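Complex record, two chains
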Amino acid sequence: MSNIELSEQELIRRASLQKLRDLGINPYPANEFKVNVTANQIITTFNPEIPNLQEVVFAGRLMSQRIMGKASFGELQDETGRIQIYVNRDEVCPGEDKTLYNEVFKKLLDIGDIVGVMGYVFITQMGETTIHVKEFVLLSKSIRPLPVVKEKEGKTFDAFTDPEQRYRQRYLDLIVNPHVKEVFLKRTKIINQMREMFNERGYIEVETPILQPIPGGAAARPFITHHNALNMPLYLRVANELYLKRLIVGGFEGVYEFSKDFRNEGMDRTHNPEFTVMEIYVAYKDYNWMMDFTEEMIERVAVALHGMTSIPVGDKEIDFKRPYKRITMFDSIREHTGFDISEMDEIALRDVCQKIGVEFDNTMGKGKLIDEIFGAKCEGNYIQPTFITDYPVEMSPLCKKHRNNPELTERFELMVNGKELCNAYSELNDPIDQLDRFQEQLRLSEKGDNEAMFIDMDFVRALEYGMPPTSGMGIGIDRLTMLMTNSISIQDVLLFPQMKPEKRAEEDSAEKYLELGIPAEWVEVLMKMGYKKVSQLKEVKPGKLFNDLCGFNKKNQLGLTNPAANDVTNWLN
RNA sequence: GACUCUGUAGCUCAGCUGGUAGAGCAAUUGACUCUUAAUCAAUGGGUCGAGGGUUCGAUUCCCUCCGGGGUCACCA
């Protein structure tokens, strides 16, 4: 990168980098730095009575500096938090040469540098636990200034809040906004809790293909890609359900996977094109068993995170203590609309939609219509965890028909805070029925429902060999994390949420300028001056350009030899 | 996709009805041996998102585009 692209502060830091090298200090040393304590350990375990922690080796990022002549304070931040350091000139530089303090510490170190310190812990007159530094070493130089966030008495000043920058440059967000790290630590804890519970029960964690020839297991638009060697399309999975069930056919009796799934659909507060789902399948169980299991799992996660079952979500308080209310979809619709739709056909359902003001179109079948009604009138009412059970068969092509009513399926969704959190079935294991359902989906797809599924004939073949009765459940890990961390947006629980790419202004390549006979050193100057395209250059008068170039050279002290006025005229012709 | 708000210094933000920009922090230089949003003094730093239009003159008004936020729609 050329120097004129850099801000003043970046230039100063690069100059500091060179000065450090001139002093024989490697700003990026290779050797291991053996730390023996964390910031949090110092703060929680230091006891001035003993005193302990008298030979600490600590490393972290320099987050603030308060220089007062011969002594200085600063703060270092490691993974666990911040600790104050105290540096005294004559202790760090016992001899005559005070360069290490006066130059290196006071001038050449910047906020953002990674620094290692050796010393002992004490408590200052102001009561702050502090490392009294006897030696320090630069571990990594930062040449780009960090946003400086300050805090006093719980109030934050100049907080780094721009959502775009926070998500694009998550590393900055993590450095500067400590609460952000908490969310992601909790996310990991949620996943670990679930994994522990499954492993305790002997279920097997597996991995299934992300690149699938047929994107099955859910009705969603897939991302498509191409495999060159096989010269065939491949899809990024929208679900892993069909593969996990193949494993149940193969004799595993409990399998689960934390699965990154991909759906080529809209993005908003609750949707990211790639997202994480945990799916689990257990043989010889049904959806009633799975409801008990799901309750236990979620309650366990809530307690592990918060020590209690009741947690704040937005302006509400949600209690994850089991058991959760269970209500059938028909009862729910009756409760919230006053209509009993259990015996209705497509025509009657359209009539209901009309009466209660639910939008619909003629491509919608019975299942879709019921789903629309539920989504519009019922879903949002379930703030406390509630199982909605017994969905119509048209909406659930992978789910076993209800033991008491062939129009329904043995399916439940867990609704929390007005949104779907889990989805589970007594899995359909009748191969003939499964093929019929797939074909019905295909008919719907031909009718215009572009979310209807592809048919996976190998999956049907697997079922033909026989799959034990099985119950399966899927849960959105991102949404669960949002609930458990009280986050409003999915972007707050994804380390790197999907963003539009950063766009740079359109510009011509350097070659185009060189072709005009412009020396390379002046090309970057022209670009910096705003002539991003050769065509723009052609529109200015040579005299003006000549003046501007010389002026720019002088003003920015580039030290270049000015071109002759004639040269400039020649460039433009 | 629709509506709406928004883009000014490294960061957070001011900038009235049009006259090419200010503050705090950060930075630079100096003072200061227990400070903590350290303090004090001085200094530098900006194609005011991009392009076009109106105008003698646009950061400001109008249009288009680009980026971002919010709401809604779409998305079991």
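Note: Chain A has a mean pLDDT of 87.
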